[in-house]
């Protein structure tokens, strides 16, 4: 079903961020003072932050004394922080920012610790509070959906799926409005990142948001990640000039996109093992035969080369012959690891890009009658 669990996803994402405050450093650094019940003195606590791969790595340690422990330091920019305590299950999360941070925690419910202080943590707390009603509705609908699926109640499943879809739209609207009202917020960066990842916003919209961020916020890891995603998506976005690529054809001869472009060009990502691709191929063959003489060119980029393929090249060549594909074919036989696939941000196939005579991407992922209609339009027929 559709990605209807966005609000829950955002909540879990932001829980990689919880709440924080400021220190006796008067803004020059942070102090995280945690009061914890149920943990004896002498027990060690750990502060961890994400590394470049997003995995929590050690940053600092503290020892419980008098029911409290304290971390102090300075951070160049806001980032997520994770606090663990020996003997306590789980962890609590916060936004590590140069501020005084106060935490109230209990041994048996560490993830539910109350964190206060700091601009970004305050915004997070307000975001969660304001979205609780909607989150509750989504949680109940998800639980009901699971029960109905198990009971194979098809009619009711369809009804609840519609409810979840409506709730998702409401959640997206709430988040979009939040981003508009908080353009310099760390929480907004997280939200845009997640929406872009789930294809709930576009790269051009995300770029407008990113461009409006303060310079210090652009230094955060999540903003850097957002910039990379935007850049990757814009390379293959409608309105962008298609990036040239070169790869070998079945005979081993290198062919470049720029060398074969016509009045209309289709880049077709497919594979021998991709059943939907193979089903669509006869339609594409028909379109090619009808319009090739008018200036239509197609270049197929095979993503054969999955680890479980014993002989990817043989599979590729056999599929070309079986489906009677008369256009240019190239492949590095590297599956989804292929550099061309990464350049065009290919996550699933079939995937198609339709280029006009200037090489600009004018449409994506059209099939059947829609693909033919677009080609006819571009050819001016």
UniProtKB/TrEMBL annotation:
Intracellular or extracellular location(s): Cell envelope
Signal peptide: 1-23
Cross-referenced InterPro entries: AhpC/TSA, DUF4369, Thioredoxin-like_sf, Thioredoxin_domain, Thioredoxin_ResA/DsbE_sf
One Gene Ontology term from the biological process aspect of the record: cytochrome complex assembly
GO MF term set: antioxidant activity; oxidoreductase activity
A GO-annotated cellular component: cell envelope
Protein name (Swiss-Prot/TrEMBL): Thiol-disulfide oxidoreductase ResA
């Amino acid at each position: 079903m559709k990605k209807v669990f966005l609000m829950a996803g955002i909540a879990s994402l932001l829980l990689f961020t919880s709440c924080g405050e400021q220190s006796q450093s008067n803004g020059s650094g942070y102090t995280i003072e945690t009061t914890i019940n149920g943990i004896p003195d002498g027990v060690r606590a750990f502060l961890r932050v994400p590394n470049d791969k997003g995995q929590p790595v050690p940053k600092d340690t503290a020892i419980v004394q008098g029911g409290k422990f304290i971390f102090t330091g300075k951070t160049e920019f806001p980032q997520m922080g994770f606090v663990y305590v020996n003997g306590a299950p789980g962890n609590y999360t916060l936004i590590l920012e140069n501020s005084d941070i106060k935490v109230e925690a209990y041994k048996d419910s560490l993830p539910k610790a109350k964190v206060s202080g700091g601009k970004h943590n305050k915004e997070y707390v307000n975001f969660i509070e304001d979205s609780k009603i909607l989150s509750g509705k989504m949680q109940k609908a998800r639980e009901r959906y699971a029960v109905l699926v198990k009971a194979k109640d098809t009619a009711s499943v369809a009804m609840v799926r519609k409810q979840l879809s409506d709730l998702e739209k409401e959640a997206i609207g709430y988040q979009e409005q939040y981003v508009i009202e908080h353009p310099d917020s760390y929480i907004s960066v997280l939200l845009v990142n997640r929406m872009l990842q789930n294809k709930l916003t576009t790269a051009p919209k995300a770029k407008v948001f990113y461009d409006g961020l303060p310079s210090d916020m652009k230094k955060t890891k999540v903003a850097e990640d957002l910039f990379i995603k935007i850049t990757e998506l814009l390379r293959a976005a409608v309105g962008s000039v298609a990036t040239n690529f070169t790869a070998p054809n079945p005979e081993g001869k290198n062919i470049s996109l720029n060398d074969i472009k016509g009045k209309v060009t289709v880049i077709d990502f497919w594979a021998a093992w991709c059943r939907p691709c193979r089903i669509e191929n006869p339609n594409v063959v028909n379109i090619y035969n009808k319009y090739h003489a008018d200036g239509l060119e197609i270049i197929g980029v095979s993503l054969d080369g999955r680890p479980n393929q014993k002989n990817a090249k043989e599979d590729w060549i056999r599929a070309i012959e079986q489906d009677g594909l008369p256009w240019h074919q190239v492949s590095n036989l590297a599956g989804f690891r292929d550099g061309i696939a990464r350049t065009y941000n290919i996550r699933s196939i079939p995937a198609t890009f339709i280029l006009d005579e200037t090489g600009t991407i004018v449409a994506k992922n059209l099939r059947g009658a829609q693909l033919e209609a677009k080609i006819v339009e571009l050819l001016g027929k």
